[in-house]
């Protein structure tokens, strides 16, 4: 039962049946070893990234906050490691769903265990990953076994995923969610070509420069004084955001630990106005692209004089200069980001539970939470899930 297993650092189960091969699933707080990473070399090649992502996940696995901790989920076929995924287990998520203390405090006090698996994107918030499967193993079977394990050891599982992976969520509920934003830079020979494709952006860049703004690019470890400004920007963004993440308590650690990675693949874009840091985005360079890990701006300022547009253009310029074809910016939750991205991947929020009562009560409660607010869902890709199936629809069971 979830309550009985929640306090354990390692939870193990055998998952199989319905014609699927039997796999041993182990969830623990143990980070991936060098030998385990090597098992997934071919899997990284298949998705166009390289080993630089592992350091991000290592730092993520070393974090914890009240009621929240990362977990690595391993799938074994016999004694052979077949799959690896990174998820977040949560108990204190009241503020993520309700602003009113009368509602959120009881949720935190009860502390029903849940899991969050961000399968859309890679490395966003240091947590996003599709679940890596070693070559020679059935990718769908391994990922489905991991999900069944999470479902069987919790009150519920929230998965952020792409609609084309709906087969994995058969029997679960589906809700609209924000899209994933990407700069596709293939075909742009110069940053000027990119700017010209975005209408009035050139005017905004000139205003930012005229006000004394610039965008600095740094690699590797961030100086502590600059890191403190990053933390302040993140805090101000969180306090004014349209959504509060269920694992928001991990964010100070995510920012600090990933910004202390001393590797050239870590690329930081820092906006300054008259010398003062007013915002930043941190990326990891992996394969032929940039993957945003986190970013924030000082939202206490009355205006940033188009610092965000300037940062995005500088990212595009850096990518073009280094022969990179894509820059992944993660979830789109503001209008500037939506306008600047030239590729938008729809995403959906899927919910799984083994309990019939939870399955019954979740939709009417969830639709009243901040994670389904009109302000947030304005950035979903054409409200694709709600228009197609209706709110909280249960996906039919069936073959892939």
What does this structure look like?
The chain has 400 residues and is of the alpha+beta class. It is 35% helix and 28% strand. The protein has 16 helices and 17 strands. The protein has helices at 2-5, 34-39, 41-47, 52-61, 94-97, 101-110, 139-152, 191-196, 201-210, 224-240, 251-259, 307-321, 335-340, 356-366, 374-377, 384-389; strands at 10-17, 20-28, 68-77, 80-90, 114-118, 132-133, 156-161, 173-176, 180-184, 213-219, 266-273, 276-286, 289-297, 326-331, 343-345, 348-352, 393-394. The strands form two sheets. Strands 1, 2, 3, 4, 5, 6, 7, 8, 16 and 17 form a ten-stranded mixed beta sheet that branches. The chain has a seven-stranded mixed beta sheet with strand order 10-11-12-13-14-9-15, sandwiched between helices. Strand 1 (10-17) and strand 2 (20-28) form a beta hairpin. The longest helix has 17 residues, at 224-240. It is globular and about 60 Å long.
Percent of residues in helices comes to 25-40%
Strand content: 25-35%
Beginning-to-end CA distance, first to last residue? 29 Å
The number of helical segments is 16
Radius of gyration: 21 Å
Structural class: alpha+beta
Outline, from the CA principal axes?
A: globular
What number is the mean pLDDT? 86
Would you report the number of β strands? 17
Low-pLDDT parts are: 1-8, 383-391
Oligomer: single chain
